[in-house]
Amino acid sequence: MNKGLQELFKHLWKSALFWAFAFFSLAVFRYFGLNQEILQATGQNINSTPIKVPFIIATTIGLVLGILFGLLNYFFDKSIAQKVSLGFSILLKTLSHFLATVFTITLGLTLLSKIFPLNINLEPGWWLTNRRFWAAMWFIVLSSIIFSFIKIAIERFGRGVFLKMLLGHYKTPQEENRVFMFLDLKDSTFIAEKLGYHKYSQFIQDCFSDLNEVVIEYNAEIYQYVGDEAVLSWSYNKALENNNCIGIFFAFEAQRKQKESYYLKKYNIFPEFKAGIHGGKLMVAEVGSIKKELAYHGDVINTSARIQTECNTYNTTLLISEKLLNDLQENIKSKFLGNILLKGKLKEIKIHSVESM
């Protein structure tokens, strides 16, 4: 299965799971809190209505809506979202979600009415005057806002980190074993002067958009963007798995290479990047109150950044510390460059250039 389908399926199952749970919760509220509504919908007293009926109906509709919403959001994000304003994108998504909801609820209730004794008018335009439908739509709007906030928070802090922050895991500093990559645009000053800062900003946007295309496949977390530099991070085990911390660099190169004609046509420049990678133990803590974020403290980050600066010295694009290289899997073509004393360090470190894998 290619990475596009993998990303789509991950997107769909998360959306389907969320909306199935949301509509299951709606059924709980309605079944246990609104006896008269059950009587009107089924024509039966609540005590004689099988408890499973509203939960099956609601969960089924939630699953179908989740898949439809997931598909719509995925294709919006991949095609339209980057071409229109955020407000217009939200408007189009809302309209498409509304139409999908009308279609799904109509189809779902039509099919379920053949199985369960529902007393609901499903004539064309039934939803215009149906109060239960508009109550459900308001519930969907609120749930969508919650889903969007969760998605933004996960994108902001990284997969797996958000839940730990909710549980207060980083309220006190925690020691972790992590790998960092400092990824920097080559000749950035020259490119900025040639393009001008407005077009240069668009250039950086395109580059980091290509980077985001490969981040998920290699289990990387984007710690931060600083100007024309991106800082990537992995837990140590995820970095070693399938040589993710090296593979992402060559995947990013391949991704940009596929769009070489686009870069040359729009900017008359093809972007090249250099990177430094190092790993080890460091401290992680939640900092700030007005603006919260995770902060990493330790020698690993400084060493990774300084290894990256040595790329210019050795005229290479990817450098890695020997310690990390020895922990990676085989089939990595590398060259030992020697012991170097990085700026601000008292102890020398062995570094290698990586040519391919």
Cα(first) to Cα(last) distance is 21 Å
Q: CATH homologous superfamily of the largest domain?
A: Nucleotide cyclase, GGDEF domain
Mean pLDDT: 82
The structure class reads alpha+beta
Tell me what the structure shows.
By secondary structure, this protein is α+β, with helices and mostly antiparallel strands. The protein folds into 2 domains: 3-157, no CATH class; 161-356, 2-Layer Sandwich (Alpha-Beta Plaits). Helices cover 57% and strands 18% of the residues. The protein is built from 13 helices and 8 strands. Strands 1, 2, 3, 4, 5, 6, 7 and 8 form an 8-stranded mixed sheet that branches. Strand 4 (273-287) and strand 5 (293-297) form a beta hairpin. It is elongated and about 80 Å long.
Give a short synopsis of this structure:
The chain has 357 residues and is an alpha+beta fold. The protein is built from 13 helices and 8 strands.
Write a concise keyword list for the protein shown above.
single chain; 357 residues; alpha+beta; Alpha-Beta Plaits; 2 domains; eight-stranded mixed sheet; 13 helices; 18% strand
